[in-house]
Amino acid sequence: MKAISQKKRKLGDCYNPTPVSSDDDMFTDEQPHKESILKGEGESVPALDVLNGYGEYGDFKLVGHGERTSEQCGTFFHFRGCLRTDLHDINTLDGENFSNKVFVRRVHHWCHKPSCPVCYKSGWAVRQAGNIEARCEEASKRYGQIEHIVCSVPAKDYGLKFQSLRQKAVKILKKRGVIGGCLIFHAFRYDIARQWYWSPHFHVLGYILGGYGKCRTCKRKGNCLKGCGGFDDRNYWEGYMKDGWVVKVLGERKTAFGTAWYQLNHSSYDKTKKRFHIATWFGVCSYRKLKVTPEKRKELCPICQHELVDIKYVGKACVIKHKDDPEYCRDSFENFLDNNGHVRWIEAPKWRRKASGSTANHQITNEDYSQTTLEQKAGDNLIESYFPTN
């Protein structure tokens, strides 16, 4: 402390470091790509798989470590895809051609509960990240570039109830110039030595008054002039020195969806409440001030951009559809015809679409389709519509 005081006297009003929390964890600023997340390939926090009795304190618990909601969670539901094989005869940039192939997407059951160990990452976190992305896209049109901010609670406020803690965090952020955004609550941090330990903080996808570009590119970053008016100036002199809360702005965002998904899948919830909102909105992004009309996003074929429809497999070969299979992939291109020239994929009849996903077996076998002869013959009659003889 004496050394810091001497340094302050030497630099006068220039001593203004970005406050650093001694409790920084090792999972802070990952931004996995949206497409890899939707395909189930996004990398989550590896330490979530082994808790060793940690990750739970009082009423709070890490997501994904409750009880499985239902036996249906994560099981195969049905296929969606694009049967427009006549439009798939296109050479992609990597030299592939999908002529006479059907685009197939496997759809699974998700309960969308943060406590479910099966659905929290691929179901709940994906849907929440999509909602956050949609609201942030609209907010960015009005308030500029979105920033990833970490707001760490000092030890003196650890005893506050969650609602009071959140209200104080919002007050602290507004004092720093964060005018609004989405708060994602984390009750724990992780390091190799201590494992998961109690250290409440908030990850914020929000907007800073005047932006952060001035401080991000400043040559005196970490030692800026007092009174320069930048975020780091307000954060240190008017914030940290008075209230002890550590507020940090991380690197530029490549994807709001990826950031939100990664932070959600190691967030925390109150296990005593039936409905606990982990992600909440404040300031100019609150539901009262920012009205966003929800739009159902269409699922499109990556080749021809036509909307996907429910489809049914009527072939005889096995098709892998279980997520635990090492060769599983959510999206694939499959042959429209088998070796004998029979149609393998047809559009699912509306009255049979629910039945098409009722079986949760590991693979589709010949026995599964012992009663689909009529459907297969009907599919064979479609060949002329896709491959006219004239």
Descriptive overview:
By secondary structure, this protein is α+β, with helices and mostly antiparallel strands. The chain has 2 domains: 14-72 and 110-283, no CATH class; 76-108 and 308-386, no CATH class. The chain has 10 helices and 13 strands. The strands form 3 sheets. A 5-stranded antiparallel beta sheet has the order 12-4-3-11-13. A 5-stranded antiparallel beta sheet has the order 8-5-7-6-10, sandwiched between helices. It has a 3-stranded antiparallel beta sheet with strand order 1-2-9, with no helix packed on it. Helix 3 crosses helix 7 (256-264). The model is unreliable at 1-18 and 353-390 (pLDDT under 50).
Set down the secondary structure blueprint.
Blueprint: H1 2-11, H2 34-38, E1 56-57, E2 60-62, E3 76-82, E4 101-108, H3 120-143, E5 147-152, H4 162-176, E6 178-191, E7 195-208, H5 213-216, H6 231-243, E8 246-249, H7 256-264, E9 268-270, E10 279-283, E11 309-313, E12 331-335, E13 345-347, H8 353-356, H9 373-380, H10 383-386
Antiparallel strand pairs: 1-2, 2-9, 3-4, 3-11, 4-12, 5-7, 5-8, 6-7, 6-10, 11-13
